[in-house]
């Protein structure tokens, strides 16, 4: 019994007795016979009984719109970049379990001198001390925050 090498182009793969490919195309197994893909998804060639399967590509799902997601405030200070610290909770028996130490974030209305208005911010108490020392404009400029959008 002679084996014939089959040349499959355009994404075709020869697996044992079956040829899998992605696009609808004409395959030539020998010079005398032509095999084409039908709507069913597979065709059996007439020479050697090779089963040729066609798996159509699945359509890509529509991108999920971020407008439907709820807005969740992250526990990160926008001015200092402080975030939760992973620590150990130690019991009396010295058994250690993981816990998070969150930043002390507060909602605070701060007077913005350049805008002549109050700005409501969610910031850490460390950032509040820094704003009292250096001023709101300097701290916001260093953190890259546009106060006109607040």
UniProtKB/TrEMBL annotation:
**What keywords is this UniProt entry annotated with?**
Ribonucleoprotein, Ribosomal protein
Q: Which Pfam families match?
A: Ribosomal_L28
Instruction: Answer yes or no on keyword Cell wall biogenesis/degradation.
Output: no
Known SUPFAM superfamilies for this protein?
A: L28p-like
Q: Which InterPro entries match?
A: Ribosomal_bL28, Ribosomal_bL28/bL31-like_sf, Ribosomal_bL28_bact-type, Ribosomal_bL28_sf
Highest rank taxon of the organism? Eukaryota
Q: Which family does it belong to?
A: Belongs to the bacterial ribosomal protein bL28 family.
Identify the NCBIfam families for this entry: L28 (TIGR00009)
Kindly provide the name given to this protein in its UniProt entry. Answer: Large ribosomal subunit protein bL28c
Protein species of origin = Salix suchowensis
């Amino acid at each position: 019994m002679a084996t014939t090498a089959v040349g499959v182009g355009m994404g075709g793969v020869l697996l044992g007795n079956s040829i899998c490919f992605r696009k609808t195309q004409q395959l030539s197994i020998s010079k005398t016979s032509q095999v084409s893909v039908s709507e069913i998804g597979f065709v059996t060639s007439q020479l050697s009984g090779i089963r040729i399967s066609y798996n159509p590509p699945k359509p890509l799902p529509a991108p999920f719109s971020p407008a439907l997601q709820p807005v969740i405030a992250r526990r990160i200070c926008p001015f200092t970049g402080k975030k939760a610290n992973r620590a150990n909770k130690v019991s009396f028996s010295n058994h250690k379990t993981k816990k998070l130490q969150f930043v002390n974030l507060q909602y605070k209305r701060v007077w913005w001198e350049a805008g002549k208005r109050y700005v409501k911010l969610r910031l850490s108490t460390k950032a509040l001390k820094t704003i009292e020392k250096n001023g709101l404009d300097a701290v916001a400029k260093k953190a890259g925050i546009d106060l006109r959008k607040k």
